[in-house]
Design goal:
By secondary structure, this protein is an alpha+beta fold. The chain has five helices and two strands.
Length: about 110
């Protein structure tokens, strides 16, 4: 099942551009379920997948999470102290790449 009935023509382009700039991007959509109580949804065995499909696209929520002022200096200090640095994140990979680039986390450019 697809999430959205239709999306704007430039949906992927906009989402990718914003993610590459380090933003957290959420797509919003809605669909009328009528008037159902939580109990009725349980009785119908409604799953998240069955409810979150065929949505009307409403737009993007774009969240900016700037780096803390001392982040670059801290990464530089750790690198100079001969620590092996590894970044672990739950962010979108494009957002994580942006953060790594901003922090000069890698000495070599990625392939």
């Amino acid at each position: 099942m697809k999430s959205y009935i239709t999306v704007p023509e430039r949906y992927d382009e906009i989402y990718l551009r914003l993610s590459r700039q380090g933003a957290r991007v959420l797509a919003l959509g809605h669909r009328s379920l009528g008037i159902l109580s939580n109990q009725q949804l349980r009785e119908q065995h409604a799953t998240r997948d069955s409810v979150e499909c065929n949505l009307d696209f409403c737009g993007f929520v774009v969240l900016s999470c700037p780096l803390k002022p001392d982040s670059k200096a801290m990464i530089r200090e750790l690198r100079h102290s001969s620590h092996h640095l590894t970044m672990i994140t739950g962010d979108n990979p494009l957002t994580a790449c942006h953060v790594a680039k901003e922090l000069r986390f890698r000495r070599k450019a990625p392939l």
